[in-house]
Design goal:
This protein has helices at about 5-15, 20-25, 30-45, 60-80, 100-110, 125-135, 200-215, 225-235, 285-290, 305-320; strands at about 50, 55, 90, 115-120, 140, 155-170, 190, 215-220, 240-245, 260, 265-275, 300. It is of the alpha/beta class and about 325 residues long. The strands form 3 sheets. Strands 6, 7, 8, 9, 10, 11 and 12 form a 7-stranded mixed beta sheet that branches. The chain has a 3-stranded parallel beta sheet with strand order 4-3-5, with helices on both faces. Helix 5 (about 100-110) links the parallel strand 3 (about 90) and strand 4 (about 115-120). Helix 1 (about 5-15) crosses helix 2 (about 20-25).
Length: about 325
């Protein structure tokens, strides 16, 4: 099937006139007419009827249109997969105030010529983000598939950077005046992290963290957003939460919230970057180099098992294959 004929059909259906479709496609009206006529012969049905105002879809045309859109979108993704430099570098982050977004913003401020499109996929399962990378919907994603064996073969995942955790509390909390805290000091606290999604990487992270240090992670209740969480912390003398050191939070001055670093060991959330194994967007290499330049964790740091296992494997590979 001639994909340009399918594209001509979709544009004509959208604008309702063959001439307008031809103008958008940069061809003559006669060319559009011939493409659609050839498509109708191949399908054995009429797709349009002519009216005084242009063209209207027949019932067969209405049935064919959603499938034709899928064909056109698939062709566009295929072209972009081999010509990624023709559009902005599209990277998925967990949130626009997350550590990943902050790091990307720092990079862009130093390289404002970079054509960067930062997006947030509304998915919790990292496998869905890997699928979006695989199909070309996005060029890269700051998500982690904790079992690397379940990644699609044509998607690569590397360590991006680690985000040290801090305890965030209100001014009446007993630990509000602390300059630093150690993990044993967090025991018996109510650490409220609402809305932990099943099958998400952060659900696995908090499960391991709680088990390793005997912490009380409370995921009760839906996640109504950062503002509701920050309001609750400001009014409470016993509720705390965990945030990344690079995460950006904004609250009213009257809240007087305190961010307290956790040390000996530093508790860190590992962040990965997924991207196509072949033909990645050419702008991605500079981003990866920037990530490699970020300050490493202190010597005494805790990471979940799936992060440490993957790094030991990468180190062994590097030693075996210089």
């Amino acid at each position: 099937m001639d994909t340009e004929a399918v594209r001509s059909f979709v544009r004509a259906a959208d604008v309702g006139q063959l001439q307008h479709a031809a103008d958008e496609l940069g061809v003559t009206q006669q060319a559009v007419s011939k493409r659609i006529a050839a498509l109708e012969r191949e399908l054995g049905v009429r797709l349009f009827t002519r009216t005084a105002r242009g063209v209207e879809l027949t019932l067969d045309g209405q049935a064919f249109l959603p499938h034709a859109r899928t064909v056109v979108a698939g062709v566009d993704r295929a072209v972009n997969a081999v010509r990624p430099g023709s559009r902005a570098l599209r990277i998925d982050v967990l949130g626009l105030r997350s550590a990943q977004a902050v790091v990307l913003h720092d990079y862009w401020r130093s390289h404002p010529e970079t054509d960067l499109d930062v997006v947030t996929l509304r998915v919790n399962d990292p496998h869905a983000a890997a699928a979006a990378v695989q199909t070309g919907e996005i060029d890269a994603s700051f998500r982690t598939v904790t079992d690397a064996a379940t990644l699609p073969r044509d998607v690569q995942m590397i360590h991006a950077f680690d985000s040290p955790l801090e305890l965030l509390v209100g001014p009446r909390h007993p630990l509000a005046s602390a300059r630093t805290l150690t993990p044993p000091q967090l025991r018996d606290l109510r650490i409220w992290v609402p809305g932990i999604a099943p099958r998400s990487e952060w659900a696995e992270f908090y499960d391991e963290l709680a088990a390793a240090f005997d912490l009380r992670i409370d995921a009760a209740g839906p996640n109504f957003g950062n503002e509701v969480l920050l309001d609750a912390l400001a009014d409470s003398a016993d509720v705390a939460t965990l945030v990344g050191a690079r995460d950006r939070y904004i609250w009213p001055t009257s809240h007087d919230l305190r961010r307290v670093p956790i040390v000996n060991p530093t508790l860190a959330y590992p962040l990965s970057l997924m991207f196509p194994r072949t033909n990645p967007h050419p702008g991605l290499r500079a981003i990866i180099n920037h990530l490699a330049s970020l300050a490493p964790l202190p010597a005494t740091a805790w990471l979940p098992s799936w992060a440490t296992t993957r790094r030991r494997s990468a180190d062994n590979t590097a030693r075996t294959h210089p």
